[in-house]
Amino acid sequence: MTKALFLDRDGVINFERGEYTYRSEDFILNIGIIDLLLHFQSAGYLIIIISNQGGISKGIYKKEDVENLHQVFINECNKNKIKITDFLYCPHYPDVENCLCRKPKSLMLEKAIAKYDINTTESLMIGDSQRDVECAESVGVKGILIKSNIIDSNILNLK
Ligand SMILES: [Mg+2]
Ligand SMILES: [Zn+2]
Which of the residues 11, 36, 105, 156 could staple to 128 if both were Cys, CB 3.0 to 4.6 A apart? Predict the structure, then answer.
């Protein structure tokens, strides 16, 4: 069994702008995120992104936009020798369609945990929203709430 660092995307990986981020020019990595990922990777954690992307359901952008941004992020990670194990996102928005995956629901985490045989008690989830913490803790993963866009170096002391 392995351990994982789960991360929310907007506000953790990239700058939370207060509106949907789906264009590559709006996708700005937060200061300190690369160092944080390197730190946890070298401590033996898989890195898995878990993101709500309800803008798809609302018709604001498409899955391809989400996947394009993800590729931009992967390219940055490759430059830094960081491996992203997986990226799961919920495309739904409750006014449009209900689902079991939108955080704070835990289906995305459950899928990743099963797929990679993850030991939940050794794993962490970093998010900038209470729903990220709720989602993590409902499956026995320790949730860490940060302020949007602030990667405090204290997080590194967790492992
Ligand atoms: Mg967020
Ligand atoms: Zn969903």
Answer: 11
